[in-house]
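G., the chain you wanted modeled:
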Amino acid sequence: MRRVLTIILLIFCFFFVAAVKYSIFNTPPIPFIKSVGLVDGKIFVNYDIDKNNLNNDIYCMMIPESEEVKIDDERWELAKNNTCSYDIDENIYTVYLKNKSNKIFKVEETNKLGEVTSISANKNKIYLPLGGTYTPTLTYTTIGYVNDNIVWSSENSDVVSVDENGKITAKKKGNIKVTANYGDKSTEILVVSTDLITKRPKEYDLKKSYLTCDMYSKEENDLLDEILKDRINDVGYQTRAGAVEAARFLALEFPYKIRYFSENGRLTFASKIDGEGRYYHKGLFLHSSRFDNLANSRYGPATWGCNMYSGPSHGTRRNGLDCSGFITWVMYNGGFDVKDVGAGVAYGSLDMTDYGEKTRFTSSLINDGKVRVGDLLSSSGPSGGHIAIIVGEDNDKYYVAESLWYAPYVAVVIVDYSKKTIYNRYYWVMLMDDYYKKDGNLTKLWY
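Predicted structure as tokens:
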């Protein structure tokens, strides 16, 4: 009898061990995490389980860290080859494993996985006057969890510095690269720090010197043209802001006054006189290399600042721009081909007052807010004509860029006029919305 009981006990133990080993009692396997990683935008979780356990079904699910895990979530997926993998985006994610008996295991490492996938700046080249500052706008993408901060650096902080917020400051002349690092990605910005331009003052500096002859080399003229083009493109070529920017640049950022010069003719005349009180071309007229742009000369050629005879004035003056020469240059560089035309006294032919909606300038027009930065102003009448452009506005004043022939100006300047009296000075305003079509990045003031 004792022998029979022993045999029965051995049989029972055998089946008990087998039941445990082969999960007859549904004992769940426990996954052992081998590795967790991020490859090509996917989170990978590799694990092992007891290979002798027949009941080895493991389910995986990845959810944003902010979500609560649920046993009956329809996103649970059966793992393949002891591996889970998921595409991720900019969210922070956690991966969970679940066995067949619904025991859930949190894979702690996954909510710390992520990387920077790209970084770029709004500009890869900027131009600054000495003492000027600029803070680029960065665009970047990340996936998963990224704990790094953007780190800025300059290859020569004595020439161009950059602070922890990305504010760049030009200290000395030079071309210096500034770098923004984020994770293992970086972007570079070339900073051209130059004394060819000045910081824009809040008020026009009437005391700055006149441009004189041969002050600039071809390379310097080329660089100024490059800066002018960049400034206009920043706010919008062929927009209202683009035309305004051309006027602001010549009057405020260029360090010298361009003298008023009574023209010797225009490209629109039969004589095709070019560059004498006018310059209907892109860029600045500062070096003799620009003579190649000219169609024909009467008393020139002579660049801005160089002496030349003016027929209407009956005397020698420094070459520069008359009023319509300035405005047509502004419009052309801003992206609008208005032709090399006059201010509005050539009745019966095209002139600057034929662009936009020519309207009697009144206080009610101002009060209604219809007069805007970028609109043209004219004092055309039987006794003469003058054309100008509004480049600034505040509550009380309009700031008008114009080339004036009388003291104390005799140059391309910006003059402020009270909104209460400006219409006594300018009889017409050309409302330019229908002509410009687009505003671009227009600002009421330049600072």
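The mean pLDDT is 90.

Shout if anything looks off.
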